Amino acid sequence: MYHIKKIIIVFSLVLTFNTGYAQESNSSNVQLAFEHMMNTEIMELGKTYKSSFGEKLTPRSFKYYVSDIGFEDDSGKIHLVAAECFLVNEAEPESKRIAVNIPIGKYKKLTFVLGVDSTRSVNGVQEGALDPYHGMFWTWNTGYIGAKLEGISPSSKMPQQLFQYDIGGFRTGQNSLRTVSIPLDSNFNFKSDAKTLLRINVNVQNWFDGKHSLKIAQHAFVHTPGELALQYADNCATMFSLDKLVRY
Amino acid sequence: MCVIKKLLTILFICTIGLCFIKATNKYSLKPKPVEFAIPEGWPKPVYDFSKNPLTEEGIALGLKLFYDDRLSRDGNFSCGSCHQQFAAFATFNHPFSHGINNAFTTRNAPGLFNLAWKPAFMYDGGITHLDAQPLAPLTAPNEMGETIENALKKIKADSAYRSMFKAAFGDEKINTQRMTKALSQFMLTLVSNNSKYDKVMKGEEKFTPMEQRGYELFKSKKCISCHTEPFFTDFSYRDIGLSADSVLKDYGRYKILNKSSDSLKFMVPSLRNVWVTAPYGHDGRFYSINDAIEHYRSGVIPSPNTDSLVKNGIQFTNDELYQIRAFLFTLTDKTFLKDPRFTLSGYQPKQVDNHSH
Questions:
Q1: Is A12 part of a structural domain of the chain?
Q2: How far is B79 from chain A (nearest CA, A)?
């Protein structure tokens, strides 16, 4: 009897120690925080801003899909830490934070995919963040809107001065998926005993001028995959940069 | 030692008991599987049944959803309003179907059958999966005009639905995926393979001499190149020399990939049950079967994309037209048109009441 007790105690101790050890020393908790900005100002829905072209705009909705979050180490290896899709929505503050566990160490880049890939687009109706009910799914031409910016602008020539950019498309020649790569401080050590806040500056200004100059006066509506959507997708990919890394 | 033994025995009995309760519980909640029968000689379906296995409960739920007018914004239109069984689930005698607020659709409602083999949906193939298809008419402002959110809200509020979702999927969770999976389950059961043509092919019946002549013409005039057996479509996109309607400006497949080589191409429709699905063409411009066949003889307006098979028209005599037509009538599956499994007993489409023509 004594032996059995002893074995059980030792066994459970080993078990506890092992699981605790695994969690504590191998991974580090990181909160990705997406801060939606208009240059240096924090962006708020319903507030009016000016684009670099001097066009006034009042955003009403801003959301986008992020997936395949990974951290690239010095050797160039990407550690994929979350493969699923997250819908980041300015109107839902909690959606702007994504918690991930990454292997401890130093990294030179954070990478993720902006948009929803073809596998997730064509295999029927998805659940969770990808539920078509979120209004990010085209019903007439199967596929997801990868990023959406809607609002009003006096520069728009559309009814009610609306602008609506639904950027998506996954088919050949229309692929709006973009991989975003954000350089990190490669001296920063992600430790197991400290949580890290990784603040990402998302400059919505770049939506219009990140790579291609796209004025609201010229294009106020984008509702289909295609060439114009690809230009906006290029611009979207430039919105993201590192604001800061903070231990807390 | 003795105490431990007793305790262990009690623990053992409890565990077994719990397992048993769990097992029986699970058993009683498990939906009854339905096997999808592939007609002899037909290829493997493209629909992946492993991701949405057919069950009696799932099909029953899909049937109820298919005929539920509440899914539309004004409560007047169900899927079944425009997809009528007696018209092989097309809209009988309408070039366009009715939507909310006296709106019309912009294309002719296709019949619904043999969907498990259909690789893409809509005349332009824009929808790539059967499960995603119902979301288009549900949300289109000129069809059911509802948001997915509101449709789900109405479903969730109905206790009959809650128990049916539980029976079909194991718990009461109701979301877009489950709603569309159930609709697919019902629609997948719409298999039409019992026409006279099918019986002739199986050696159970014989064509009349006129039908036989029509079948031979159907092959020799190369109708069969696009309207390929056994589905009487090869599911390809083709330009058959129809000029775009000046109001609709519908260029078909072009809308999906923006490629000029796709302009005016539409998916080849199946000719099964063609007798009951008039009018014809993607915009219902052909009033009768005669008109549709006549198009290939005298109506082709060639454009750069027009299919080489029809570009110069297809020559046939009036007698031959009637022979081809006689063959096409053998594609009518009367069992399918009256199959009681596809009707919700007591269902009366509401939109018939406010029909003004």
A1: no
A2: 15
